[in-house]
Amino acid sequence: MKAVEQPKVKAPDSNSRWESRLPIFVIGLKHREEERLAKFLLKLRWYQDLHVVDAVDGRTVEPTEKMTSGEIGCFESHRKAWKRVVDEEVRQAIIMEDDADVDLSLHMKKVAAFVAEAPSDWQVLYLGINNDKDIRNVTATVAEPVHYIMGTHAYVIKMSVAARLHALSEKPPYKDVYKPVDMWLTEQGLKIYVINPPLVKQRNFGDTDTQGIRVKTLNATRLLL
Question: What pLDDT is attached to residue 147?
């Protein structure tokens, strides 16, 4: 893929927590590159610091009693992305799944502002979640989750946090319990914030049986709180 000139994104100020480099790691199945992944990469063709993380194909792993093969593949794919962030020694990076619905060429200044305006203790910044009603605003554009986060289709993560998560998940937490990666992330005591309104959405969320069940479960949880 031929790189084109990247639009310049000005940091808000010299003391900002925004880093001059913010690579994007896209999780996708390379053997499917002529289809979804290729179309997604085409959207980001203008971004020079773009990398592909070859996803773990859920069809190649055995499900457990609690987790589907697809959920396990998703978890292991994010572990690969965290390791890439650490191996390439980038202070912070965007991790995206190839089913994210976004044109970041229109939104990178907003991403920069979000990173700069987030509380200084942030560890993971979500550019969008599927249950965006379950948040409370900290500022006009920065919110924090109230319940579990649904969706890992686009988030900014610090290298130190990526290293921590990769180490913590060395022994798969989903072997005996139901722990999709988004639910597990919420339970790790991280300082998580969400941009509001969202910049990135997940295409066709809720279409699968598993996603439908999770939406119903979250709705039931709200009634208990």
Answer: 79
